[in-house]
Write a structure and sequence with these properties.
The protein contains two helices and six strands. By secondary structure, it is mainly beta. The chain is globular and about 45 Å long. The two termini are about 25 Å apart.
Length: about 120
């Protein structure tokens, strides 16, 4: 794999939001806040990045958005303001941080427009 760049540990980007991978696709490179359970499943893995966009479930009474990502599992984040929308209309895109995932940067999209970005874990 000559195109593997394993030195992207904690690499930062000038972009404010995680890309909407469902629209843009993937680049050819590259506790709720605790990724120890994910890392425990990756014994023998030297480098890994997860980039995904999934549907989220929003609870307006708690301002809480939950989403399920393969390998990572279900995570929930608190959105600082109410999102007036029908169920299933929210998309969550994320990219993990670290050579082996230890956190993630998450962007919430409404109608393919970013409305909120947050980080958890080691990001």
């Amino acid at each position: 794999m000559s195109d593997c760049n394993c030195n992207q540990n904690n690499a930062s980007s000038n972009e404010e939001h995680v890309p909407n991978y469902a629209v843009e696709g993937f680049a050819s490179s590259t506790s709720p806040d605790n990724f120890d359970d994910v890392r425990a499943q990756l014994v023998g893995v030297d480098a890994m990045a997860i980039q995904a966009c999934v549907t989220g479930t929003y609870n307006p009474s708690k301002h809480q958005l939950c989403f399920k990502v393969p390998v990572i599992g279900t995570k929930c984040i608190t959105i600082p303001s109410n999102i007036p929308l029908p169920a299933g209309a929210v998309k969550v895109c994320l990219t993990t941080c670290g050579t082996i995932p230890c956190g993630a940067k998450v962007t919430v999209y409404l109608n393919n427009s970013p409305v909120y970005t947050t980080k958890f874990g080691c990001c």
